[in-house]
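Try this one yourself first.
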């Protein structure tokens, strides 16, 4: 391939996948966890935001929870630990869960395995996500490395591309304040200093801001009447649960998140298939996840759902009442 054609191909990939930014302190945090566990896999989660242009900005890295399961060739995160920090980082700092990370030691792979790719695909389809970041770490005598991989849904198919980390010097605005508030519950790495092997990364001066919330042409929330309908739904939930908040999770997913003290945390999700498919609710309680499609709720024999022109607010609110929400 000619040099000019290669450049065009790289530019096309960048437009599809966007860039991946991470603060140096957070990359160090991940590397220190990898160095803590030279024989068994470890892992965690990535929190931050997506820019309107599709770039990912990793602001906070979470490590393994106390009940995580680690083996020589696998890692499973502590679901309760993850959900606690998903809710708290969203509530206190407006950060979204944008990706996951884990290490490969005995496998010696610096890229995702077939099982990793399948897991990401299944998770994105299940949650209706259009974008996700996966970081794969390796530990050797030189130090730790952690490469970044972007997964994007394009015309119903999920495509993967390795992207270099764009490393922002210093620390983000969340780590020190959040860790202080979670002093008794947060697990930190034992290794004091990060040492690195070879990986795809380069420095940049600063990360892009989150910017204004924007949507692609034709998206249902570009219509003023639809925004008013959503506003009514949010107002209803906020009248019952004061911590309810509206979030743009990715390019095509809108969520209303709220919690019932002492019972569960909930999400009302308008995903990539809305408004053709009804929104659904997800409940997280004591490590278990349950979901209900609001189009079929309580009405056997098919999905009873109406288009936006019929007004979504009364339908959604009534279905939430059916669930005693």
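Now uncover the answer:
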């Amino acid at each position: 391939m000619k040099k000019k054609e290669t450049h065009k191909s790289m530019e096309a990939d960048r437009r599809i996948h966007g860039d991946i930014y991470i603060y140096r302190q957070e990359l160090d945090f991940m590397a220190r966890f990898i160095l803590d566990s030279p024989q068994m896999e470890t892992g965690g989660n990535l929190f931050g935001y997506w820019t309107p242009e599709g770039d990912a900005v990793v602001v906070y890295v979470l490590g393994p929870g106390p009940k995580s399961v680690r083996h020589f060739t696998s890692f499973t995160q502590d679901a309760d630990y993850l959900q606690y920090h998903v809710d708290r980082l969203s509530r206190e700092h407006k950060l979204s869960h944008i990706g996951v990370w884990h290490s490969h030691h005995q496998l010696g792979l610096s890229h995702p395995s077939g099982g990793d790719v399948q897991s990401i695909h299944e998770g994105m389809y299940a949650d209706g996500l259009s974008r996700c970041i996966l970081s794969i770490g390796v530990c050797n005598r030189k130090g730790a490395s952690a490469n970044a991989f972007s997964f994007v849904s394009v015309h119903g198919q999920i495509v993967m591309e390795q992207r270099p980390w764009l490393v922002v010097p210093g620390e983000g605005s969340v780590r020190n304040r959040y860790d202080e508030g979670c002093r008794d519950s947060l697990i930190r790495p034992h290794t004091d200093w990060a040492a690195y092997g070879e990986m795809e990364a380069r420095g940049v001066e600063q990360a892009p801001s989150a910017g204004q919330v924007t949507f692609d042409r034709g998206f249902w929330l570009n219509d003023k009447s639809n925004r008013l309908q959503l506003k009514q739904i949010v107002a209803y939930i906020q009248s019952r649960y004061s911590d309810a908040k509206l979030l743009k999770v990715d390019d095509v997913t809108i969520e209303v998140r709220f919690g019932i003290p002492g019972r569960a945390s909930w999400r009302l999700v308008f995903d990539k298939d809305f408004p053709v498919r009804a929104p659904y609710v997800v409940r997280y309680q004591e490590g278990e996840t349950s979901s209900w499609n609001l189009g079929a709720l309580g009405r056997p024999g098919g999905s009873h759902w109406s288009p936006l022109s019929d007004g979504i607010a009364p339908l959604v609110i009534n279905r939430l009442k059916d669930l005693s929400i």
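Discussion: The helical segments are 3-17, 24-36, 79-93, 114-127, 175-181, 224-240, 312-322. Residues 1-10, 298-303 have pLDDT under 50 and may be disordered.
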